[in-house]
């Protein structure tokens, strides 16, 4: 029997695209979005929180916007490259194949 692993949600492609474009992202506050965007997004649970986040964006200075854009692009460049993704899948497949062979 394989060891139990925590369940994980899928990565939202539109969130990745928005970050890769350097957008100031407003994301629903859930573990999956937080895992992807980390400090490169503003999070909300309620309409009121979203409204406050939009107000903060509207009041942001010209210096804050490029910094947020840089963080968003950096998050993608460091964690969501094709090479990194394929390496992670390869490691997972090798791990699973090794675990199955050991239990056969």
Description of the molecule:
- By secondary structure, the chain is mainly alpha-helical.
- Helix content is 63%, strand content 8%.
- The protein has helices at 13-20, 31-37, 47-59, 64-79, 82-103; strands at 25-28, 41-44.
- It has a two-stranded parallel sheet with strand order 1-2.
- Helix 1 (13-20) packs across helix 4 (64-79).
- The longest helix is centred in the C-terminal third of the chain and has 22 residues, at 82-103.
- It is elongated.
- The N and C termini lie close together (10 Å).
- Mean pLDDT is 88; it is low at 1-7.
Topology:
Layout: H1 13-20, E1 25-28, H2 31-37, E2 41-44, H3 47-59, H4 64-79, H5 82-103
Parallel strand pairs: 1-2
User: What structural category characterises the helix and strand content?
Assistant: mainly alpha
- Total helices: the number is 5
Q: Biggest β-sheet, characterized?
A: 2 strands, parallel
Radius of gyration, whole Å = 18 Å
Helix percent band? 55-70%
Shape descriptor? elongated
Strand segment count: 2
- Kindly report the average pLDDT value: 88
State the separation between the terminal residues, measured CA to CA.
Answer: 10 Å
Low-confidence stretches: 1-7
Question: Beta-strand percentage?
Answer: 5-15%
What is the N-to-C succession of helices and strands? HEHEHHH
Largest beta sheet: strand ordering: 1-2
Quick tags:
104 residues, mainly alpha, 5 helices, 2 strands, 63% helix, disordered N terminus
């Amino acid at each position: 029997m394989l060891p139990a692993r925590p369940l994980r949600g899928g990565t939202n492609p539109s969130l990745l695209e928005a970050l890769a474009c350097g957008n100031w992202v407003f994301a629903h506050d859930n573990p999956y979005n937080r895992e992807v965007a980390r400090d490169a997004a503003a999070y909300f649970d309620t309409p009121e929180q979203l409204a406050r986040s939009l107000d903060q964006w509207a009041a942001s200075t010209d210096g804050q916007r490029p910094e947020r854009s840089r963080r968003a692009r950096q998050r993608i460049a460091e964690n969501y490259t094709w090479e990194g993704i394929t390496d992670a899948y390869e490691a997972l497949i090798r791990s699973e194949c090794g675990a199955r062979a050991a239990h056969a």
